[in-house]
Amino acid sequence: MQKGQTALMEACQHGWASAVQLLLDHPNIDLHLKDENGETALFKACARGQLDSLVALLGHHDINVNATDADGRTALLVACETKTQAQVPLVANLLKHPQIDVNHKDNDGMTCLMSLCQSGADAMIAYVHELYNAHKHADDKDAFEEFKRSYVEIVVELIELLVDHPSIDVNATLDDSGATAFYFACHFDHLNILQVLFGHSRLDPHQPNDDGTTPFMVACAHNRSASVALLMEEIDIDVNNANKEGHTAIVMACATGAVDVVQLLITECPQLNVNYQTPECRNTALLIAVRENHLKIVESLLEHPEIDISLENKEGLTAMDLAIQKERNDIIELLMLNM
Fold first, then answer.
1. Most buried by CB count within 10 Å: which residue of 69, 75, 213, 226?
2. Among 331, 329, 281, which residue's Cα sits nearest to residue 309?
3. CA distances from 229 to 158, 222, 224, 262 (A)
4. What's the average model confidence in pLDDT over 212-216?
5. What would the mean pLDDT of 254-265 be, rounded to a whole number?
6. Do residues 209 and 178 lie in contact, with contact meaning Cβ atoms separated by under 8 Å?
7. Which domains, and CATH codes, for the chain?
8. InterPro entries attached here (predicted)?
9. Distance, first Cα to last Cα, the chain
10. Are 246 and 278 contacting, i.e. CB atoms less than 8 angstroms apart?
11. DSSP state of 176
């Protein structure tokens, strides 16, 4: 038995149902005891995917379903991270408890919904890859993809459970950045998750982080073309909106080399201000693309009928000046064709 571990913790993590019930029936049982990591018996049941143990604990009148460990996690957060076949019923049973705090934040300021939208699917896929390789032939790609899809569906189902809870704050923000679950889903291009979140009546898909960067902007900056296309289809986007630094979606996409997104914005957004200049440095999307040596983006920008290649930045430099400085003959030739 580990340091600080009680008999109830031991029974719960191993799923010894009869022992768990016997201990719970004792009049002096203390469900609130924690081990050296701050974990209670409820945590042990969640971490090991022991559904019967969890159900028995939740049925006890003295259970504190929102107890936290040393990292500020609740049993619900642990259950959302527990990668077992029992994960969905674990979370479903916890959400049925009348005292459950579905919006609790851990010490990092993350809620369950944020955690799943940020890294839940990716973490699950990494786990599946490890599990699959341990039991199957690693070169069977078709079988692995099917195996992976089934686990991605689990993450989506977990998010559906959370979003359906009447107390869920779907627009809750991360303490140190102001990012929302929707923001994370856009950042990491989780399309299935985005579609679930779109179904919530109180979702604010435009809610920016503390820097004024919206979910649409972050998707553009990371070349998440599928998410960008979905956002443009589902909601009214002000494609020329700028964050607190004065950067628009097209400016961010050009700075990071988001080729696919730049092409999408140019072809699908007739209201795009392709010649927008940032307030501080007076940079345009074209100036940034040339500065960062993004040839394909320069090509895409030059296809826009309203592109102005003569605009100067704060230092008085044009796109041609920058191309000459960088000795980019390929870009110089492109610019000359548009003069």
1. 75
2. 331
3. 25, 13, 9, 12
4. 98
5. 98
6. yes
7. 1-101 (1.25.40.20), 106-210 (1.25.40), 214-339 (1.25.40.20)
8. Ankyrin_rpt, Ankyrin_rpt-contain_sf
9. 77
10. yes
11. T
